[in-house]
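User: Structure please.
Assistant: Input sequence and predicted structure:
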Amino acid sequence: MTKTDPKKRILLLDPASFIGGAERFALDLANQVDLETFELWVAHGKNPNYKKELLSGIRDVELNVPQLRLKNIFSIFAGIRRLRKILKKNKIQLLQTNSVRAHIVGSLAANGLRVKVVWFLHDFTFPGKLIRYFSKFPKRILCCSDAVKNHVDKQIPAKFKPKLGRFLNGIDLTLIEKEWLSDHIMPPPVVGIVGRIDRWKGQRYFVEAAEKVAKKNPGIQFFIIGEPNQLDEDNVQYSEELKTMVQTKNLEKTVIFRGHRSPIFKEISQLSLLIHCSTDPEPFGRTIIEAMAMGKVVIATNHGGPVESVIEGETGHLIPPKNAEELAQAIITCLGNHERMKKMGKNAKKIATEKYELSKTVKAVEEVWMGVLNV
């Protein structure tokens, strides 16, 4: 494509009400797209922070699409109609969707228009019957990890499997400031878990492990970094349960709730170890890659995306889910061998910077767009 060719018109659809790992990737992708080649729109939910983080030159539009529940059926169809108008008015050529809600709404809105659809899948939550039906709409289905790709491969009809591809969620390494990197562990040791407070994220087992470790190594601190989605009553309640749990176990000086922190790299820089103890398979595990890129050792549960990023004994450790005893032992083992941790941290940084650089992912996605549009 030459500079005189008209720009390709792309719209990214991401209607989430909060910014999690998938939303963070969508923002990073949008902010690194080649705006000399593509004219980019982003349709997002009612989240002022989303709009603030988009760079100049990117057009944004607020599009409220509620959760896919029967009680919301009229609002859902209203969202589909509005998206369809946006696509037509702005002569969008390709729509990339970023969540199950976006995949369904976007596919229906683009149906019958001369708009190509690309899905980017970040999780395992697409119901089997729905993905089997809706997989006929996108031209390509991009998956954030082999774990997600293999899961989808089992769900969709054989004739649609060639659409699948793995596209790792890269991270912007330029955001990691030099002063946040270190080749040594500052005392006292700090062990952290980073991410949205959610039952399946396993913070409960982190607290249980902290109690076990504190009995043998009372000087270690444990940070819970993140907060629940305030629109999710169950996880708000779960957050309160965790705080009560900490109080009941007399761990107020050991387990610290740090809340939401930005920039997250600065917070990760204070950690000696990063813990990722999800009870269900994690599709990708963005914070794992961020920590590895900063030379941090990671202990993660051995299912889902982390199995692809954490190499047992070389960059960290993999443990069974829902097992506070093994988590505690892994923490004690790591912190007990400073030199081994330094070596694993260097290995982790090397792998993360070579394999998960955002610019590589952006280039690969742009090539998908051009390939789809040129067919």
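The chain has 14 helices and 13 strands.
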